[in-house]
Amino acid sequence: MSTEHSRRAHDILKDARKVAHHDATFWGLRQGHDKMAQQLPEWESLRDHASAIKRHVVTHLADYLEQFSNQLEGRGVIAHWAKDAQEANEMVYGILESHKVTKLVKSKSMLTEEIGLNDFLMRRGIDVVETDLGERILQLMHRKPAHIVVPAVHITKEEVAQCFEEHGISHEHGNCDPTYLTYCARLSLRKEFLQAGAGLTGCNFGVASTGDIVVCTNEGNADMTTSMPKLHIVTMGIEKLVPDYESLAVFQRLLCRCGTGQPTTTYTSHFRQARPGAEMHVVLVDNGRSEMLANPDHWETLKCIRCGACMNTCPVYRRSTGASYTYFIPGPIGVNLGMLRDPRVYSDNVSACSLCMSCNCVCPAKVNPGSQIYLWRQMLDSIGKADKMKKVMSRGMSVLFDNQRLYAAALNVAPLANIVPDALTRSAKLNPWGIGHAKPEFAKQTFHKWWKKNNKRGGLK
Amino acid sequence: MKKEDLLARLRQNTRQQYDMPRMDDLQGITYADTYRQFVDMTKSVGGKVVEARKTDDLSRLIRNLYPDATTFATNLPYLAFAQRNPDTVEAAQQLDGTDVGIVEGSVGVAENGCIWVPQTMKEKAVCFISEYLVIILDRQNIVDNMHQAYRRVSFDPRYNFGTFISGPSKTADIEQSLVMGAQAARGVTVIVVAD
Question: What number is the ipTM of this complex?
Answer without folding.
Answer: 0.98
